[in-house]
Amino acid sequence: MGNLVRVAIQAAYWPRYGLGMGETYESVTVETKDQVAQVTLIGPGKGNAMGPAFWSEMPEVFHALDADREVRAIVITGSGKNFSYGLDVPAMGGMFAPLIADGALARPRTDFHTEILRMQKAINAVADCRTPTIAAVQGWCIGGAVDLISAVDIRYASADAKFSVREVKLAIVADMGSLARLPLILSDGHLRELALTGKNIDAARAEKIGLVNDVYDDADQTLAAAHATAAEIAANPPLAVYGIKDVLDQQRTSAVSENLRYVAAWNAAFLPSKDLTEGISATFAKRPPQFTGE
User: Fold this and answer.
1) Domain CATH code at residue 127
2) According to the model, what pLDDT value does residue 293 have?
3) What's the predicted TM-score (pTM) here?
4) Which residue among 12, 22, 246, 256 has the highest number of C-beta atoms inside a 10 angstrom radius?
């Protein structure tokens, strides 16, 4: 019933917010009411997975919201039972194909480096948005989804939420922002445990280590809490809010930028491997990977 109630409430009270000339998107819906926008991940991949449309549309969505003076806070959530499964590996498989071909040389590595930098812009658009952002997380939040919530200002979770910095399980070094931004959110030991193991943690553990601010009983309460906080922010003078966020962000801007450039170059140089091929193959086959370090 929770999801049905949630959908009914949104349909009744949240008018569709057309960016530009009433534009709609494949990977998200955008709605607004009372100076608060809600960006809802919708996939189209399973579990709101992040496919090509997500990486292309997010910069446009957040640049438009940031330019709209009537939007003073933004809530990000996922449709259905999960926030997001992260990278849509089947849909994005073509990006990896040239890298896992035998003898991948400079051209595919250069193209891959360019693609990483392009995709990073999707998460950077959220982090660089002057308007405060709040994530309401339910169900799974994996890989790229952790990159996304690491870029927002405030994070709430439902009791059923589960988090994983999963990239290591694919033989990938997380390159969309988790390793750049989580050091400013988590202690070093907790971050290294999550990134090096790829383990799942529940909402209670996420709250304990500071990944989320608060945990609520279910998705409806989590979304309501996010909107309540967004309304509080929206009621404050917008220029002061922008200033507070800008000053706080100064602590991380240069460090994050340098980290993102470094990891993009690192993955372009060293990611091609038999382990990458094995990680992707195991994902498609739904079996445990057997890594050899080659």
Assistant:
1) 3.90.226.10
2) 87
3) 0.90
4) 256
95 vs 267: CA distance, rounded Å: 13
Burial (CB < 10 A; 0-12, 13-18, 19+), residue 293, is: exposed
Q: How far apart are CA 49 and CA 82, in angstroms?
A: 10
Give 4's pLDDT tier (boundaries 50, 70, 90). Answer: very low
How many domains is the chain built from? 1
- Residue 287, in any domain of the structure: no
Whether residue 245 contacts residue 234, with contact meaning beta carbons closer than 8 Å, is answered with no
Q: Does pLDDT of 126 surpass 80?
A: yes
Can you give the residue range of the structural domain that contains 274? 2-280
CA–CA dist 262, 180 (Å, integer): 10
pLDDT value of residue 243: 96
Calculate the CA dihedral of residues 9, 3, 84, 234 and round it to 10 degrees: 30
> What tokens appear for 37 in the block?
């926008």
Q: Is residue 124 part of a domain?
A: yes
Q: What is the largest CA-CA distance in the chain?
A: 58
Inside any domain, residue 294: no
- Looking at per-residue confidence, does 44 or 19 come out higher? 44
Encoded amino acid at 2, one letter: G
Highest mean pLDDT pick, 41-45, 102-106, 130-134: 130-134
In a domain, 289, yes or no: no
